[in-house]
Every structure is written in C-alpha cells, then in structure tokens.
C-alpha cells in the first residue's frame, strides 16, 4: 500500500531527527531544566518584587543594554578581560596538572607521595589562596590568574593520576602479546583511557575557573566581570548584578554544550563501540 503524504512526511521527519547528533538530544533535558528554573525565578520575583529579585525579562533587558553599551559599562570588554585571566590560569592548571598527574600515576611511590599534597590543595578554600595571592602579586593580573591555577591544578592532577593508575593490566599484557609498537600503545591504548579520566575534570576545572576568577576580580582588581559586579553591588543595582552573572553563566553553557560536549563524545566514542561490540 503506498504511503500517504502525511506518512511520508513523518517518515522523513523521523529519519532527519534520528540523524541529529546525540549531544543535541542530550541538551533537551538541560533546556527543560533551565526553563523550569526560569519559571521558578519568575515566581520568586513576583513574590519578592524587583528591589530584591528582578524578573528574567528585566535581567535580559539589562543584559542587552550591557551588550550594546560602550566604555566601562560595556559587556564585551569586561568579559574579554575575565576570559583572558580565566583561560590563562586554566591553561596552566590543565597542562601542568595533566602532565604531572599522569607522570605521578605511573609510579606507585610518586602517587603515594603526592596524595597528601593533593588533599591539602583540594581542602584549602580558594578565598585563602586569593588572600595570599593579593599579598604576593598585588592588584594586577597575577592575583586572579594564580588563584584560578591553584584552584584547578589539584583537580586535574588527581584526574590524571587516577587515569594512569587504573589502566588495566590485561590491556598492557595484550599489547605485549601482540608486540604493539610504542606509538600504537600510546595513541590507541594509553591516551583514550587517560583522557576518559582527564576530560571530566577539565570540564570541572573550567567551571571552577570562571567562578574563582570572578571572585578574585571582585576583591582584587578594577576591571573584569568581578569588578563590574562590585560596582553593581555598591549601587544596589540588582538587575545589573544578575545581568553580569547571567553573562558568565551563558558563556559557560555555550562552552560546555557547543564545544566541550561534542569533543567529549568524539574522544569517548570507543566506549560506545566497545558496548556495541559486547
């Protein structure tokens, strides 16, 4: 029996939707969660009033004004300054934490010696490092960059160490049995396994970097998103404060779902392949 026009359309629609990347589907749950949060925000704003909590629409209008502004009130220059500091500290944490963590994980002695220091660094609150950084580096870029680095380094280090320590012996024995060359061992065995541990902690470090850099700017420098938040707080400008916070959150969401999530799925494709093979 020939298909009707409606059936043909539905069949083509299902085929097109099925061809969409999986990470786009995974984003629908996050979008639903965000919409639910905004509905709750709207309800609380109606209850408490704009002096305590502006509505999402008022915040969006203020964010649009900041995006169209010029000078110290403009969003993009301040956001660029914050991003530069955050990514400078984050890059140092990712590179040094990954390399040193993997190196320590390859030796039981080094792993045992590093463990208490990782605990100390993880247990020290970022605000304590910020105070020390202000004494050491003053009110320049060094303070927020160092604070971001020291907050993210132990997280990445622990992930690299765990990835290196958990490589199963049977895979190494299999590589020895087949006499795999060194480059195949590194690229096809070691790197995918270690990255499956490193990539999640990289995402955590990214979120931590933005939170820490804004806090550091709030207390130590005169530019950046943190400094703009300090001005909004001094002026009791709730809509401006929420607009600056929303800008940072939107940047984080964009980085995670548009950049990091597709990369993560590509890197961890071997997990799906292994699951299908089994």
UniProtKB/TrEMBL annotation:
Ranges where the ABC transmembrane type-1 domain occurs: 79-261
First-listed, main subcellular location of the protein, grouped into a coarse class: membrane
Transmembrane segments: 12-41, 86-105, 117-138, 144-164, 189-210, 241-260
Any one cellular-component term (Gene Ontology): plasma membrane
BP-aspect Gene Ontology terms: transmembrane transport
Recorded superkingdom: Bacteria
InterPro entries associated with the record: MetI-like, MetI-like_sf
Membrane topology term: Multi-pass membrane protein
PROSITE patterns: ABC_TM1
CDD domains linked to this entry: TM_PBP2
Subcellular location: Cell membrane
Alphabetized UniProt keyword annotations: Cell membrane, Membrane, Transmembrane, Transmembrane helix, Transport
Family in the record: Belongs to the binding-protein-dependent transport system permease family.
Identification of the protein by name: ABC transporter, permease protein
UniProt source species: Lautropia mirabilis ATCC 51599
Lineage: Bacteria, Pseudomonadati, Pseudomonadota, Betaproteobacteria, Burkholderiales
């Amino acid at each position: 029996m020939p298909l009707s026009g409606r059936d043909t359309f539905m069949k083509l629609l299902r085929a097109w939707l099925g061809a969409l990347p999986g990470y786009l589907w995974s984003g629908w749950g996050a979008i639903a969660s965000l919409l639910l949060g905004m509905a709750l925000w709207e309800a609380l704003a109606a209850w408490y009033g704009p002096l305590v909590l502006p509505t999402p629409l008022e915040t969006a209008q203020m964010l649009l004004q900041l995006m169209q502004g010029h000078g110290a009130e403009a969003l993009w220059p301040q956001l660029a300054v914050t991003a530069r500091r955050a990514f400078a500290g984050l890059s140092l944490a990712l590179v040094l934490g990954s390399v040193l963590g993997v190196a320590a994980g390859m030796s039981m002695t080094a792993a045992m010696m590093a463990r208490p220091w990782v605990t100390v660094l993880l247990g020290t609150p970022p605000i304590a490092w910020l105070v020390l950084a202000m004494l050491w580096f003053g009110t320049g870029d060094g303070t927020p960059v160092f604070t971001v680095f020291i907050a993210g380094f132990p997280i990445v280090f622990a992930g690299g160490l765990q990835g290196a320590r958990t490589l199963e012996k049977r895979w190494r024995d299999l590589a020895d049995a087949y006499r795999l060359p060194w480059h195949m061992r590194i690229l096809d065995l070691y790197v995918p396994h270690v990255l499956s541990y490193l990539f999640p902690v990289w995402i955590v470090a990214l979120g931590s970097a933005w939170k820490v850099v804004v806090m550091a700017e709030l207390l130590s420098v005169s530019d950046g998103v943190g400094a703009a938040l300090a001005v909004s707080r001094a002026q009791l400008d709730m809509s401006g404060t929420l607009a600056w916070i929303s800008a940072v959150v939107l940047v984080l969401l964009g980085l995670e779902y548009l950049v990091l999530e597709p990369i993560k799925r590509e890197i961890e494709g071997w997990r799906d392949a292994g699951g299908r093979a089994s």
